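Assemble and predict.
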Amino acid sequence: MIVGVATGAVPLVAGGAPVHPQVLLAGAGIVALIAGLFGWATGFAFAALAFAGEYSLRLVSLNRGNRLDGWAVLEAVALFATVELGLRSLEARTVARAERRVRRASLGRFVAMVAGAAVAAFIVLALGGRRLPAPTTGLALGLAAAAALLLSADRLRRGATR
Amino acid sequence: MTQAFGTARLHTFVALAAMGLLVALATGRPELAALAAPFAVALVVGIAAAKPPAIAVAVEPDTDRIIQGEEVGVTVTVTAATDVACVELLLDLPRGVDVVDPPAGAAWAVALRGRVPRVLTVTVVAREWGRHDLGRVVIRVRPALGVLAFESNLRSPRPLRVLPDAGTLRRIVAPFETRNDNGSQVARALGDGIEFADVRPFRPGDRASRVNWRVSARRGETYVNDQHPERNAEAVLLLDTFADGPASGSATLDRAVRAACSLSTAMLAVRDRIGIVSLGGSTDWVTPGMGERARYMIVEHLLGSVARWTEADRSLRWLPPAVLPPRALVVVLSPLADDRMMRAIIDVRRRGFDATVIELTAELPEEGAESTARRLWRLERELRRHTLEAIGVRVGTYGAEDPLGFVVAELARARGRVGTARR
């Protein structure tokens, strides 16, 4: 929850955008996060979308041409940490008692994931110094990528029996 | 069998990565792609690195036979072929078996090292008698980043036989007739034994050790003591499995099985030959025998007892002769609610068997306590009891709260002969 609030606060602290819409989106994100913590896992995705939307307002307001926003890395890490911690909180609600070794390994894995998230966001940002392809081509590529991801997720969801 | 499925993490990451990349491409802002990148990378790494681990589990109870209400330790040994960061295990216990220690339940999340067995222990208590299978274990592993999960239901039958407990009997229902083999029942016949029977004049062939010197001195001629020999007997427990009683309190079949277990144990302890017949939806039997083998067979039979309703006519006439040996005592355990069981008891008595009934009184619901139906029910039962007693069958009532030892002692006393056996 603390990480979620911090994530919602990052665009506000960064500034450069109308505050009221940002606060509204942050509030929506917090509500979705609370719903997620009450057991509705999809709430974390909605929370992340709300926080990302809040950050996007800053990008729209700045409109600095080819200059990149450095806050994106922090926002990416915060978003990832919020979702990951939320999902972990749901997974932890099991009757199985985790031993110390498991808890320690889990913490280590989380730190590694957050570090990896920072690196991934930084690399993408560094590579995106120039504008991406024209919107039409980009849209086609994005649709194809999204369809591929959703199809593979659906296939996995059906559960392959091994 | 291992089943792979996507976790909530998979769906969330897919949705966020897809949406982020799509919007980034549509708007041409790399910052949005940077927001989606961690989810996309975690997704790819998580799916690529997820492999079902080879895990073997063995469940072993400390003993395979306990008395109802006793605790037993169960050891769960888990071995993985490779290192596994976290394995969630759940020992799926059957109904009637509860966890005592650890208090949180028989579920663990443990880390495993490759080929190093990990031993977990749990103490369970058996609340219900019967054959329980402890060998069901559910394993869940979320390898790599937890995007995919692998779940296995492992079944390796590990039966735990829980014997019903109705207490130890100090007295048993002694049969009127005994066999010719040595045992612990005091026979009605006269012969070599310990129990004093009578004094009579000396006859040629009597042993000098049996001379009663005091009586001989008083009477002026030689008198000897007569004794009752110790013999064993045969008994058949007739179990009514037509229908179980109401669920409130102790059901009649449950009481019947507990009583049969206690009676057979007590009778086998005094070297009697015991058999059992279940008459109901299906008719099963165990031919009379003695010793540990007979006890094992009777217990196995009792543990499989279920009440099954049938409309079919059931009778003891079709049983093999060896199941109901002549001169055997027939102990009926029945709520006397079914006419077919009544007919079976009357048939047994008409064939000259020594029979006695332990009536398992069914508890009626509290509603309408003084209703006409209740009074009719009581009258009907009274009538059945009188019908049986009129043909020489003693009936003892065994309520849900009654101790069986008291019921058996009352029955033994009512049968007009002390039913104590030498142990």
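The two ends of chain B are 54 Å apart (CA to CA).
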